[in-house]
């Protein structure tokens, strides 16, 4: 069985005339758990949003197996940063997860009993079924993140994009989430994660995309997570990189 791939070509993004991403090019195999890393302000979230067409880009193409990523829209799940979500919106947990079934329902179709059962099954997968009738805003950060992961599972997607899913959550939730993401990978799904904790990189990811406004490296963790590349990206002395979890 031939491997599929995702390719980003000549990606440029600017905000208000200031270039944020410059000439990003990489090809990466699908069916992997892929970390997007780089210092604060490197453009990690911007790159993810540009790949998904959520923000305008100056130039660039994103293809999966030679086809535009837009053609796969219904097979893509996106979990934004928690800070970008309105947690005061009055919606209960099970209805939040049920939203994941909407992309495949089409216009004017309402979720069926089967869809509702599937949403509850996804909630159970993240260990949150007992909170089904709770308001989303009443949950802890880790619980909220699990619910949004359940919503993405409900989409039955092929590609998953998560923006900083481990920020501000408890250890137990992080362990649940990474276990599920690895399970998705093992099922042949492709998972991209914007990530900041370098101490977890080697145990979490198969491949890495290392950027700082431009691409520093992309490929297997052992090839990218090297002191010389990390030093270029983080502009830090080697002794400082050691404290960040980079072997020196």
From TrEMBL:
InterPro entries: AAA+_ATPase, ABC_transporter-like_ATP-bd, ABC_transporter-like_CS, Metal_Ion_Import_ABC, P-loop_NTPase. The keyword Transport applies. GO terms for molecular function: ATP binding; ATP hydrolysis activity. The keyword ATP-binding applies. Gene3D superfamilies: P-loop containing nucleotide triphosphate hydrolases (3.40.50.300). It comes from the Bacteria. Keywords: ATP-binding, Nucleotide-binding, Transport. Residues 6-238 form the ABC transporter domain. Belongs to the ABC transporter superfamily. This is Metal ABC transporter ATP-binding protein. It comes from Siminovitchia acidinfaciens.
């Amino acid at each position: 069985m031939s491997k599929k791939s995702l390719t980003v070509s000549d990606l440029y993004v600017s905000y208000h005339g200031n270039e944020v991403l410059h000439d990003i090019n990489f090809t990466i195999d699908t069916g992997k758990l892929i970390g997007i890393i780089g210092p604060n302000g490197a453009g990690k979230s911007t790159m993810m949003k540009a790949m998904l067409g959520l923000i305008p880009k100056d130039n660039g193409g994103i293809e999966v197996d030679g086809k535009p990523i837009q053609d796969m829209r219904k097979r893509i799940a996106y979990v934004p940063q928690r800070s970008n979500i309105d947690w005061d919106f009055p919606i209960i947990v099970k209805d939040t997860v049920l939203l994941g079934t909407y992309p495949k329902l089409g216009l004017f179709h309402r979720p069926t009993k089967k869809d509702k059962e599937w949403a509850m099954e996804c909630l159970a997968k993240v260990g949150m079924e007992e909170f089904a009738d709770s308001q989303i805003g009443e949950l802890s950060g880790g619980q909220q993140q699990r619910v949004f992961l359940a919503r993405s599972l409900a989409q039955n997607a092929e590609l998953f994009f998560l923006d900083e899913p481990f920020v501000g959550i408890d250890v137990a939730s992080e362990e649940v989430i990474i276990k599920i993401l690895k399970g998705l990978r093992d099922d042949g799904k492709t998972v991209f994660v914007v990530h900041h904790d370098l101490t977890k990189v080697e145990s979490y990811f198969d491949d890495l995309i290392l950027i700082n406004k431009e691409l520093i490296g992309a490929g297997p963790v052992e090839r990218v997570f090297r002191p010389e590349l990390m030093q270029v990206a983080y502009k830090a002395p080697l002794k400082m990189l050691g404290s960040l979890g980079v072997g020196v």
